[in-house]
User: Fold Glutathione reductase from Ferirhizobium litorale.
Amino acid sequence: MSSYDYDLFVIGGGSGGVRSARMAASLGKKVAIAEEYRFGGTCVIRGCVPKKLFVYASQFHEHFEDSAGYGWTVGETSFDWTKLIENKDREIARLEGLYRKGLDNAGAEILETRAELVDAHTVRLVKQNRTVTAERIVIAVGGGPNPHVALPGHEFCISSNEAFHLEKLPKSILIAGGGYIAVEFANVFHGLGVETTLIYRGLEILSRFDQDMRHGLHEAMEAKGIRILCQDVIEEVTRTPTGELAARTKNNELLTVETVMLALGRDPATRGLGLEQAGVKVDERGAIIVDEYSRTSVPSIFALGDVTDRVQLTPVAIHEAMCFIETEYRGNPTSPDHELIPTAVFSQPEIGTVGLSEEEAAKRFEELEVYRAQFRPMKATLSGRAEKTIMKLIVNAADRRVVGAHILGHDAGEMAQILGITLKAGCTKDDFDRTMAVHPTAAEELVTMYSPSYRIRNGERV
Ligand code: NDP
Assistant:
């Protein structure tokens, strides 16, 4: 009989926390999980899920326009932001209920409170003002938007958190950042009819992606009417006498908009968590430092998901939780595998990607074959929409392995999932070549690009 109140105490009811609590409880462990806000975490409550619903909402106006070429006449259309928010909130509440039910069914105790560490085995439940003990503790508290406090006027700006609950749709928005959130929300707001400007400090948006994807998306967004300012940053935001916001930029632009949104990365939510007191080490960004089994500097305390700032993605947090369970409760030490993570940017068009960008691959391999196709998607023929799809395979010439696959176009995220399997399996270009095409699809290009578009040798295009 354990001398602790619980076998496992989980702090944080997001993707990683819920998964570890549910799995441990279903293995017969005595588990409690504390959450101070809502179960489901960033992904379900104010991230991936509501974002995707917004993406769908924002695509309809193009669908209506495109239908004309296919013989349809669509009557007058209008958009009701309040209705979208209400319906979205209902769906999020349903999903939150499922998360709770899963925990309940597995026998985990749900605690609606903030929880903070006291020592290696003790947690303080803030709401109840009492402490409990556990043999193991998992910290899975995620992160929050970087508030950019160095920016004068940052208090006037919103983050993605507030974007999900705006009382009304703004007429105009300025979004700062060039990452996933900035790019996705720029497309969402533009699609819903908001005059949208994106401002990014670097040369080209989406710094960690393949150049072709970055340029291709940039062009497509500008062609839709989104203004993109690169190599510029907001230096100050002030409120104008008419209640709008004026953003002055480094390049001396003065942008007057209704809303300014900052999407400048997300910080680990470790402040005030009692980490120092318990002896849990963090890095300079406040992220919890863990070993290859998600164990912190305190042997009984583990951390997973965004709070460790390894890869900030929901499926990664879930995977880390499963590895923790395997290691600690199934006697099968398993470290998370962070190699070849497929991912999608739900921009319009989407980007789906797995593996190395051309630029990264060129640094690692002596010779690359690059297969590249650019074409007009079939649906655009009758709709008349000027859009293009780009597909790219990066192949290590030495062993013919496909080391990167990148798609810009409709359903790129769906395709990235399947491509992820092929790269994980170590497929070569010859495996792609001997795979029969599915016709007519866009994805068939992936198996019909027979000769390289160009080669990269020692970093130089030849
Ligand atoms: P990202 O890390 O993707 O992007 C942050 C952006 O902010 C970068 O363009 C960065 O520039 C810029 N930036 C950072 N600090 C400053 C600064 N002080 N001044 C000006 N610009 C700055 O973060 P996001 O906030 O977009 O998203 C957070 C995480 O959430 C992502 O890393 C992603 O893993 C996850 N996410 C995933 C999604 C998906 O899977 N579809 C969707 C949304 C989020 P630079 O590039 O030059 O560093």
Observations:
- The chain has three domains: 6-144+267-329, 154-264, 343-457.
